[in-house]
Design a protein that fits this description.
Blueprint: H1 4-19, H2 40-54, E1 76-77, E2 80-81, H3 83-92, H4 98-102, H5 116-128
Antiparallel strand pairs: 1-2
């Protein structure tokens, strides 16, 4: 089984290829949308490339769940993710740093959960199972 560093190297290479980036633009903390400029169509390409690179099947919505809070008034109130919403995020994204997001749980910051390190964490768990 590959180490976290080996997984990171392959994920970084995948991001460079999929998004047309320079090597130095990809860091573990880089957010896919905000820092790396990924768009929704890129997420499909990234999943495809990761499946091929790591020889795994990534079910739709498992790595990049859609509608995380889906406008549910119990999960979001006045543009802020509630404690129940944070619990839902932890459940749907067990490989993301939800605690860091919880420091400023604005709905518009949800995209910050999708980082290069989140993908590494996901693949590390996936490859171990």
């Amino acid at each position: 089984m590959p180490t976290q560093d080996e997984i990171y190297e392959k994920v970084a290479e995948t991001m460079v290829d999929a998004l047309g980036l320079d090597d130095d633009e990809v860091t573990p903390e880089a957010t896919l949308v905000g820092d790396l400029g990924a768009e929704s169509i890129d997420f499909l390409d990234i999943v495809f490339r990761l499946e091929k690179t790591f020889d795994v099947k990534i079910p739709r919505g498992e790595l990049f769940p859609e509608n995380l809070t889906a406008g549910d008034p119990n999960l979001v109130k006045d543009g802020v993710v509630t404690e129940e919403g944070l619990a839902t995020l932890r459940e749907k994204l067990p490989f993301a740093d939800v605690d860091k997001f919880a420091a400023d749980p604005q709905v518009e910051n949800i995209g910050d959960l999708f980082t290069v390190q989140m993908i590494v964490n996901y693949l590390d768990k996936k490859l171990a199972s």
